TrEMBL record:
UniProt cross-references to PROSITE patterns, sorted A to Z: THIOREDOXIN_1 (PS00194), THIOREDOXIN_2 (PS51352)
SUPFAM superfamilies from the UniProt entry: Thioredoxin-like
Subcellular compartments: Cell envelope
Xref: CDD domains: TlpA_like_family
Organism: Thioclava pacifica DSM 10166
Protein name: Thioredoxin domain-containing protein
Pfam families tied to this protein: Redoxin
Length: 182
């Protein structure tokens, strides 16, 4: 497993910086920190759970542009960017785009996530969990927050390490470019 994690992380972070959907042409401001790839990367198989313990996978989101946000309730930059992720989901609606928030690590109980979401008015995002860090490890997440941008074909096309203002005009341009690239 460790070899796979190291290999996936090396592929994701060492890929040529460019993008099939020409995201580089629309990246500016804070989105210039979004690492993009000349060839989209296939996703490794992984699953995550919802508040009820039901298991989910990326197959449920096929055909949509997805922004997976790995975060934790104890992580200040994670908590800070959550309202902008909520606003981004509201701006694009559920038809072509989905933000998946996956609280990773055992200290992010469904009750803690629910309390944080309720207190902050986060009402457009799912409350997914990755208690044993299996999804985070599969995706090569080494710190938090990490947001992974997935195209319509279910491939990783970009990765932001650290927090971002996801409802900014710059971020919306990137998301719209991917949505338009059908």
């Amino acid at each position: 497993m460790l070899r796979f994690l190291v290999l996936y992380t090396a592929l994701a972070l060492g890929a040529n910086v460019a993008q099939a959907a020409d995201l580089d042409a629309v990246k500016d401001g804070q989105m210039e920190s979004l690492v993009t790839y000349s060839k989209p990367l296939p996703l490794p198989p992984f699953s995550f759970t919802d508040e009820t313990g039901a298991e989910h996978s990326m197959k449920e989101f096929e055909g949509k542009v997805v922004l997976i946000n790995f975060w934790a309730t104890w992580c200040p930059p994670c908590r800070e960017e959550m309202p902008s992720l909520n606003a981004l989901q509201k701006a694009f609606g559920p038809d072509d785009f989905k933000v998946l928030t996956i609280a990773t690590g055992g200290s992010n109980s469904p009750a803690k996530v629910a309390s944080f979401f309720d207190k902050e008015g986060i009402d457009a995002l799912p409350r997914f969990h990755d208690d044993a860090n299996f999804a985070a490890r599969a995706m090569g997440v080494l710190g938090l927050p990490v947001s992974v941008l997935i195209d319509h074909n279910g491939h990783e096309v970009g990765r932001m390490i650290g927090g971002a203002e996801w409802d900014s005009p710059e971020a919306k341009k990137v998301i719209q470019a991917l949505i338009d690239d059908k």
